[in-house]
Structures are given as structure tokens and as C-alpha cells.
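[audit] Reproducing an earlier prediction to check determinism. Same input, same settings, fresh worker. If the C-alpha cells differ from the archived copy the diff job will pick it up downstream; this log only records the rerun itself.
[audit] input (671 residues):
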Amino acid sequence: MDRYMNIRGLVIFLSALLLSAAAYADDGWVVSAKGECRDYTGAAAANGTMGILHWKEPFSVRQIVLNNVFELNDRTAVNCAVLGINPFELALTVDGVAPEGYSHWSQSIDMKKAQHNTSFRVADKLEISYSLVALRNLPHTALFKVNVKALDDASVAFEKSVSVPYGYQQPRYSHKEFFADGRRIRLQQTDALTAHGRYDVSAASMFIYDEAAGHYAAKDGKAVLSFDMTSGESVEFCVVGSICTTAEYSDPYSESQRELVYVDRIGVDTVIEGHRRLWERMWESDIIIDGDVQAQKIVRFALYNLYSSCREGTRCSIPPMGLSSQGYNGHIFWDTELWMYPPMLLLNQGIARAMIDYRTDRLVPARRKASDYGYQGLMFPWESDSDGQEATPVWALTGPVEHHVTADVGIAAWNYYLVTKDMHWLRDEGWELLKGIAEFWVSRAERNDDGSYSINGVVGADEYAQNVNDNAFTNASASVALRNAVKAAEICGYDAPQIWNTVAEGLRLHRTSDCVTMEYDGYAGEQIKQADVNLLAYPLGVITEPDQIRRDLSYYEDKIDMVNGPAMTFSIFSIQYARLGDRQKADEMFRRAYEPNIRPPFGVFAETPTSNNPYFMTGAGGLLQAVLFGFGGLSITDQGIIQEKPILPSGWTGLTITGVGPEKRTFVVTR
């Protein structure tokens, strides 16, 4: 109880900071900050291929994270997501001097336009505003669009340089000048090899400006754009940059230049309009909350960040921190299938398909891993890199024995079929995946003398309990995956081996004398990291009796690590209480799922109440599930997506979920 009270105090403190620093616009689309804003956590502008972590200081970029580009990291000793070369380094001088400070600072993130905006004043000389856009229509390209207004006569210069992150080797810097379709192109080019030479990364950038107003010079590897301005005059220019690698292109050096030529030729405004059209199409699938402005902001920001982290058609997935950082080395975990994937499956089947494609593209290494550990079928790694191989640090027991991820992949794949009813996919790709997962669990399970089955020596969803037998979530998820494979076989016209059903029905779940589901054989009430048993009611649907669900909820609620446990547990609690019709508890758990974890000024999501490693996409996925599958009453069933018993939390006057499923249905919940 004392621990919970401490967290409540932290919630109040952080909420006060958030509300004091951020101005919540009434339309629910813009999160903003202004003033001193000493407590600051930046948010990435991302387009599914790269994430640009923008910060408080004018034009600052902390890092650029590349999706699905991995190189061995000597510090972690495993493959790690690569930071991109940053071509957006900008330094400002006024009358030949770097400003000592700035005033009238404000920042905002316009989620509808996927545009990050900053404005500030330099002394009494200049008003500067700019927008950062990671282009959805040009996924390797981003731009800063800058407006400068002179409050007094001033000579203004912007010096553009390139920053190469630590670990790259053999960087080459050059300045290019040529004509394309009669237009002069002046650009900076930097390319370098990743730490161990696996990839060549190339970054190019250029100013796009009115040559009648600005003066351009290139010297010492830098590009300088200057303006002699009179009071009241305004100028506008753009910095556009492209980052390409040999992970996608055989010649990234040339491609990074081509994309800049394209932007220059087509026009900045036209390119931005194309970016906005793609986001308008994505926002046809949205969550609209009436009566609670803060919840609307947090929920939509969660959806915005997930949309920003992946792209249709890429066959890539989403790591726990998305493209905001190298957290967890950028690896793919169960976080993808169990937490982030369900909201995408409902609201953006293109992104959901890319996430499933990531797994079906890696069946060969999954089959090899199963064989290497003495099993049959497909065994997916706990932490997967771009090659689909095990990338867990060797000191972590999760790598060798946290096996439920293989079941999680199978459950996600089956749900993809249930939502899309895509028979071609099921026959051509899904069946091999589901069949291989079933074969793994049959080989992994051990038959007991009484005819039941056990899965021994595992780490479950609760990673505090290591090397245990009959973990509830592992056994239940394996059972569900096996049953799904049986259904898939019937639909595809195959005969499923009887052993699949036998093992599915025989996997043990242990209960205490008080009929509480035990987390594993021998569990005696120890503290747990996150929900494990409680996942059996939702999302697995293995426990369905309301009394049993309540009993398990009540027992495990005070077993959760309130300090270092991740946020998703309370999303699960919220869903189950909502489905039980308990509005008060569902609302309480929903708030606990995000309030301790949001960081000012924008509401960026951290993994735990005490960590500061945002943006935590896994928590965002859990939060969205609480709204969709809890308050919204939606379920994925053999009949597709249905709505059962929605319920609104206190303070909400309405909930509208648009663009659901392939049919783009709308679900409305009112008082």
C-alpha cells in the first residue's frame, strides 16, 4: 500500500508538470509546450523507416534511428539498430555572432499533419519558426521548413553541417554542385561504413531557397545560407535531407542525392501535401473520445506514435521503443505480436500485414533455431534482429528459455486471418507458419504419467520467475496456438495430427486451494514483473468464467511491481474489468496504465513509473487495447470483429472508433 501511495504522489506531480507545460488544444490533434519547460522529453518525428528525435533547443536533433538496419554493437555484444548519419545540423548566427539564448519559445506536434513545429525569438532581432516533417511519401527523406521574420535590420546566417554518430568508420565528406533540368543543385554528401562494415550509409542534404533573397557558400565541409534582412522582412527556406543504406539500395550514395533532386524538382509544398494526404488516409482509422481532453490526447498520441513506427509493404515490424531510440537494441520481441499488433490489426491492416510479414520472412532461421535446441518446427527468437536470429544478450536467461514468443506469433497470425479472411495468405504463407509453430509445441511439451502435458524450464511473461515449470501464460498460449493451427488445417483442407489437439487439451494449469490460477507450478505469492496469469482471460480467452477472472484479478493486483513493472499490466486489468461491467475498476486501471508513465511536456510514454526511456510503443499498444477491446467492447472472433458489451469510463460522454477492419466500420459508444 505504501508503494502505491508513492506512485500516486508521483502521478499527481507528473500530471501537474504536464498540464502546466502543455497547452491542450480543444480539437485533440495538437500537443504543445511553451515557456521555460524545464522538464522536457522530446518526441520523434518518424515515418516508419526512420525516426528523428527532435529536442527542445532550436533545430536540435538528438539522433536518427533507422528501421531494420542492424550492426554488431561492441558495447552490447549483439546486433543493434543503427543510428543514421544526421544531415540536419544547423547553427544560427545573427550579425556574425551566435545567439546566447532565445525567448518566446514554443513547440507543438500536430498529429493530424504529422508535423513538429517550433518557434522562438532571438533578442529583439528575429522571430523564427520552423516545422520538421519525416515524409511519409518519401520514407528516406525529411525536411525542415524555416521562416525568419526580421524585427530589426539583421544579417542572418544558417550553417549546415553533418554529424556522424560514434562507431562509424571511414566517413567521407563532399560537396556537390550540378544542374538537373536546368536547376542548380548544391548539396552536402557524407557516407560511411557501419562499425563492422556491414552497411554503407549515405546522407545528403541541401538548402532549397529563393536565390534572389539568399546567399550560398560552401567552405570547410559546411554549407552556409545567409540573408541580409531589413526590419519587417520575412524569408523562407527549406533544409531537406535523405539517408539511404545498402540494406535497401545497392547504390545509396546516388539514391540519397536523387531524392533531394526529386524534392527540389517537384516542390517542397507539393511533397508536403503528398505526405499529408497519406496521413489523412491513415487517420480514417481513429479513436475519438468525448468529454476527456487529456485522455483523448494521450490515446491519440499513442496511436500517432504506432502509426509512425511502421509502414505498409515494408515487411518490417516495431521494436519496443519504435524509432525513438535504440532501446532494447531495436530488437523485435513479443511486444510486437501481443501488445502493438492488435490495435494495428483493427485500425491499419497494411501495417499489421508488414508486422506478420516480418515473421513469415524469417521461417528459415526459426526452423534452424528449433533444430539447434533439439525441437521440431519453428522456434522464434526472444529478441529478433534483422536476420531473424537470436539477439538476446548472452547474460539474459530470456534468450534461451522465454519460449512463449513462438505461441504469440502464431496467435497474431491466426488473428490476421480472422480479421482479413485472406485465404490466399493463409494457404500461401500463414499455414506454413501455424503448422511449424504447432510442431514446435508438440516437441516442446512433455507427457506426464497421468496423461497431461507440461512445458518445463521456461521464463514466462513474468520475467522475475525464471526457469519454472508449467508457467500459466506459456502453457495457455501454446494451447491456443495449437488449437488455431487445427482450425487453419481444416480451412485449408488438411488433416491436422491428433497430437495437436491432445497436447492443447492436456497442458496443465495449476490452481491453489483457494482456486486462484497459479503462475507456475510451486508459485507462492512472489512479486511479479507484469501480468501473466491475467493474460489467460484476455487476450487468450482460456479463462472465461467471471468468478475465476475476478478471483485472479484480485489476487495478482497487489503482486505487481509498482516501481519497475511495465505499464501493460494495468491495461489488461482495465480490459477485464470493463468486460465484467465494473466501470469504476476499469477506469482506475486505465488511468494507472498511463498516468505514472507520461513525461512532460507532450505526454511521451515511458516504460515504467520510474524510467525515462520513451517512447514505449509496447505501453502505447496496451493502452489502445484498453480502449478498443475494453471500453469499446470489440473482440476478434471466428466471425471477425464484433462488438459485445462496451462501457464508458467516468467522465467520458462518448467514444467513436472509426475505420475498423477491412470494411472500415465505425463503432460508437454513448451514455
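[audit] rerun output stored. Observation attached for the diff report: The mean pLDDT is 95.
[audit] end
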